[in-house]
Write a structure and sequence with these properties.
Length: 224
């Protein structure tokens, strides 16, 4: 069985005029070490798919599994634990806490589970070094550039050694030079850590460097 499986996933939202179907029976499979870019217009369901893939939402029908664990069979507490241990998230906006240093922001997911120790701190430092920020450990977000803040967010997403890394428009707020650097950094780290990477993006240029590309059209995956 593939490591990540989305099987006939549909998602509907209730509206005053009736159900609105955003995803319509989409399926995909990925193994560790593979990556996929999902492109599509605004409102096409890209972020909805990513939220379902990351257990932040559940499908109206169909199923999603990671390493054999079907998300629809887990309760809310089990989902939260599974998400924290196995899934990393990178968003368009970095969502760093302004009062914390770069290193403290990277360590936040481990602080939440009470797992911060000397090994965790060293891992955080190593991750910041891997994204080129070894000289920014004690800098707060306001003292970092936009590209640097996004790289801190990348390091934070990797602190728990996730199996699945999800990126929602990770270069959308960056200039072209930083966007290209961040996109390549994601692919390099995904390969180094043998993760599954799913990235949703408006950028066909970013999508073109991924192993697999698909487009969301009318709630369904279409070949790019």
């Amino acid at each position: 069985m593939p490591d990540f499986v989305a099987n006939a996933v549909s998602k509907e939202f209730d509206t005053p005029t009736g159900p609105l179907r955003i995803l319509d029976g989409i399926s995909t499979e990925l193994d560790r070490g593979q990556n996929m870019a999902v492109i599509g217009d605004s409102g096409s369901g890209k972020s909805t798919f990513l939220h379902i893939a990351g257990t932040l939402d559940l499908p109206s029908s169909g199923s999603v599994s990671l390493m054999g664990s079907d998300f629809t069979e887990l309760n809310e507490n089990q989902l939260a634990q599974f998400r924290n241990e196995n899934i990393g998230f990178i968003f368009q906006e970095h969502h760093l806490l302004p009062q914390l240093t770069a290193l403290e922001n990277v360590l936040l997911p481990m602080v939440a589970t009470g797992e911060t120790d000397s090994n965790s701190i060293q891992r955080g430092k190593d991750l910041l070094d891997s994204v080129g920020l070894s000289d920014r450990l004690d800098h707060r977000p306001a003292a970092l550039s936009g590209g640097e803040r996004q790289r801190v967010a990348v390091a934070r997403a990797l602190i728990q050694e996730p199996i699945l890394l999800l990126a929602d428009e990770p270069t959308g707020s960056l200039d072209q030079a930083n966007a290209e650097k961040t996109g390549q950094l994601l692919l390099d780290l995904q390969s180094q850590h043998n993760m599954i990477l799913i990235c949703v993006t408006h950028s066909s240029k970013l999508a073109s460097v991924f192993q697999n590309q698909t487009r969301l059209v009318d709630g369904r995956f279409a070949t790019v």
